[in-house]
Design goal:
single chain; 496 residues; two-stranded antiparallel ribbon; 6% strand
Length: 496
């Protein structure tokens, strides 16, 4: 068999998205904060774009629509390096009557005192800087750095401090000792003995937050107990000897084993529940994401109206100066090509933002119309809804609905919700109506809240209670939703 390279021509059809469509899709799925960042970036990179001042926007809105932006050729162009364009007009010379004012400004900048005897920016600037520093959040520090700072102020021998540093370096994100103490001592050489390592571990375990340096959960909780608090012996015994019985809600056996009453045991378990099982999680936590609703729903004139929360976005327009430059006949080809490309990019961006507003408004209005009962009466009236239903009503593809909802939030009279919250499947009731899964979960939660806590309902009994309400779901579905709602099993829900 002979192998050789050859050139062959063939015809084929491919579906390719135009750059304008790609940009429109990207703009549509951006949340409000990311869209503002995208606009700021475009303003830096595209000199043809400029922000329309509020007063200019008002004036232009009041004028008759007769003026158009100078026409620009729509042909495809290649990006080139931005040429240096000199302004058409030179700066006006300073008038004679303004010389004194200019000299006064220069003298104040050089440090001369103002007429009222205060240096420029002496106290006001300091007050503003101090206020900014005081109101700025403290930089996040890691658990390791926090412990080392405390260790630096302790009166510890250098050799012991070195062992403590090694132990701190081996703590995991929870604050637990990740490796056996014998391995840590062996890794430091033959000069470190196990008693020395245990002494260093005791020093680390006395640092804040209490509970760090523990080797298991029980030790972590024991380190947080105070020997001076009432009932210390009972708390320590419960954690040390009967912790598994407490987790499994075996209160009668535990009370009998430790020799206390049921009330004393409940009080002790409540105190144990106040301890922190993961002390290291206090450090290095990621801040909660800032949610800025893209839309708002308000009751206006007896009807729910959708309002776009995009007033913080700047109003964009094409710069008149560059439009006039493009109409000049003496432009070199490189400058003309560059300006055509930037004009095209600016128009695409403005059109994409306007298309985003229109699509997002239409989709959200259709959602609000469908979920009106939810807004009126609460979560128990959330209707099953599919993206395809909204796509058919608005007249767009279902992928457009999915992209429009990505990362978007809406402020409603019931609170702030993700747009995806309103899309949920459902189960058919015995009367033929559909009930959303969210409503099923809420009804399951109501059944558990109203049960007899001395004899909690099993998953099968919960399914039977829901069947009486017309909701036919299996026991395993009840178990799945119970775990999603973080509701413990019937054994652990039992109260004595």
């Amino acid at each position: 068999m002979r192998l050789e390279a050859s050139l062959q021509a063939r015809q084929e059809m491919r579906l390719k998205l135009a750059p304008q469509i790609i940009q429109s899709i990207e703009i549509l799925q951006l949340p409000l904060l990311e869209l503002r960042e995208r606009i700021d970036q475009e303003l830096l990179e595209n000199p043809v774009l400029e922000v329309l001042a509020p007063e200019t926007e008002t004036e232009e809105a009041g004028q008759a629509e007769g003026e158009e932006t100078p026409a620009v050729d729509e042909e495809e162009v290649n990006p080139v390096e931005a040429p240096q364009v000199e302004p058409e007009t030179e700066a006006e010379p300073i008038k004679e009557e303004n010389y004194e004012a200019v000299e006064e400004i220069i003298s104040q900048a050089d440090g001369e005192e103002e007429p009222w005897g205060r240096r420029r920016g002496s106290s006001d600037d300091e007050d503003s800087k101090r206020a900014a520093i005081e109101n700025s959040p403290a930089p996040d520090i890691s658990l390791e750095e926090h412990l080392r700072r405390q260790l630096a102020y302790s009166e510890t021998a250098p050799a012991t401090r070195q062992i403590c540093d090694n132990i701190i370096a081996n703590l995991d994100w929870r604050g637990y000792l990740e490796h056996p103490l014998t391995d840590i001592a062996a890794s430091m050489g033959t000069d470190v003995t196990l008693p020395q390592a245990e002494e260093a571990l005791g020093i680390v375990q006395q640092l804040e937050p209490r509970g760090v340096g523990a080797r298991n959960l029980e030790e972590c909780l024991l380190l947080q107990l105070d020997a001076r608090q009432p009932g210390y012996d009972l708390l320590a015994r419960l954690i040390r000897d009967h912790f598994d019985d407490i987790l499994k809600n075996r209160y009668p056996q535990t009370a009998k084993a430790v020799g206390c009453t049921m009330e004393e045991l409940k009080a002790a378990v409540e105190e144990i529940g106040k301890l922190n099982p993961i002390p290291g999680a206090l450090f290095g936590e990621e801040p909660a994401p800032h949610v800025l609703p893209d839309l708002r729903v308000e009751m206006i004139g007896g009807e729910y109206r959708v309002i776009l929360e995009d007033s913080a976005l700047p109003s964009l327009r094409i710069c008149d100066y560059y439009a006039r430059r493009l109409q000049q006949k003496d432009l070199d080809p490189q400058t003309e090509t560059y300006l055509k490309e930037k004009f095209q990019s600016a128009r695409w961006l403005i059109d994409a933002i306007q298309q985003r507003r229109s699509t997002l408004f239409n989709i959200t209005s259709s959602i609000v119309e469908t979920q009106k009962e939810f807004l009126d009466k609460g979560p128990m009236f959330l209707r099953p809804l599919k993206m395809q239903d909204i796509a058919d009503r608005v007249g767009v593809h279902v992928s457009t609905v999915s992209r429009a909802m990505a990362g978007k939030y809406i402020q409603t009279p019931r609170g702030i919700y993700s747009l995806k919250h309103f899309f949920t499947g459902g189960v058919e009731k015995q009367d033929g109506e559909m009930e959303s899964w969210e409503v099923v979960r809420q009804k399951l939660l109501q059944v558990i809240e109203n049960e007899d806590k001395s004899a909690p309902l099993s998953d099968e009994e919960i399914a039977a209670r829901l069947l009486r309400q017309g909701i036919d779901i299996a026991r395993r579905t009840v178990s799945k939703y119970r775990k999603i709602l973080k509701i413990p099993s019937s054994r652990r829900r039992k109260k004595y």
